[in-house]
Amino acid sequence: MIVIVTIEGGFDVTSVNGASGAPRRVSVLLGIGIFLLPIIFVWFLLRRGYSVTARVIGFGWLALCIVASVLSHGATPSLQANGGAEPKTAQADFDRVNANFVAAVQPCEHGWTTVQPALKSGNVQDGYNIATTAKTACMTAWTGVNSVKFGDATPQPHRDKLNNDLNECSHAYLTKATALSGIAEVLNGDGKPSKVQQVQYEIASANEKVTSCLTNYAADAKAAGMKLPGDKADKAANTGKGHKKT
């Protein structure tokens, strides 16, 4: 019997049994789904019966797609952040920072959400590997967010407020990395009650800190007059409704 830590901060005591029967084969339809839309269909490989090889291939393909997406969307903003043309307007500065922020935290957030189904599958080795990989991604998010700053195009006092929000988010992702490290240690055999309690606290703290910093970041951006990505979508939707009414 082992203690399994859930990402919401709870605990399950699960018995991990050996292999039972032949591994389940990946159907043609599931294979096509994973190839075309891995973010949706790859999770089916976490069901009992699929081999470790199938899961490694499936999640490896998902990781490759995510990296390609991040590189394609984050290339231009990264050039600006590392010596490219300085944004001329506050909105352009926000768009630059926000694109770099999303690129930095996306792998961490993805890893954070994949730990839960891996733990529920009862496969300790899979859970340990995913938690370790996610921890590395969140450490990268910590340093990545910390390196992104609003520039002179964003007026004061909004610039300092937004940079302070980014600093809080950077520490929040460090807390996520710490929680994931604790999960990996528990899965590696450190199931002492004191360790489990510590990990439970770190998970709850990480969720709270990330939620808080993102809420403050969005609120301060709004107060500075920035248009958030969701605002553009809402405006387009409202415009479409207006046309329908007329």
Question: Can you describe what's shown?
Answer:
The structure is a single chain. This protein has 246 residues and is mainly alpha-helical. It has a domain at 88-233. 71% of the residues lie in helices and 3% in strands. It has helices at residues 28-36, 38-41, 52-81, 90-120, 124-146, 158-187, 193-223, 229-245, and strands at 2-5, 11-14. It has a two-stranded antiparallel sheet with strand order 1-2. Helix 5 (124-146) runs antiparallel to helix 6 and helix 6 (158-187) packs antiparallel against helix 7 (193-223).
Task: Set down the secondary structure blueprint.
Layout: E1 2-5, E2 11-14, H1 28-36, H2 38-41, H3 52-81, H4 90-120, H5 124-146, H6 158-187, H7 193-223, H8 229-245
Antiparallel strand pairs: 1-2
Strand order of the largest sheet: 1-2
Order of helices and strands: EEHHHHHHHH
Q: What is the gyration radius calculated from CA atoms? A: 21 Å
Low-confidence stretches: 1-20, 75-83
| Main sheet overview | 2 strands, antiparallel
The mean pLDDT is 77
Helix content: over 70%
Please indicate the percent range of residues in DSSP E strands (runs of 2 or more).
Answer: under 5%
Q: Which structural class do you get from the secondary structure elements? A: mainly alpha
- End-to-end separation: 65 Å
DSSP strand count: 2
* Number of helical stretches of at least 4 residues: 8
Q: So what's the overall shape?
A: flat
Summarize this, please?
This protein is mainly α.
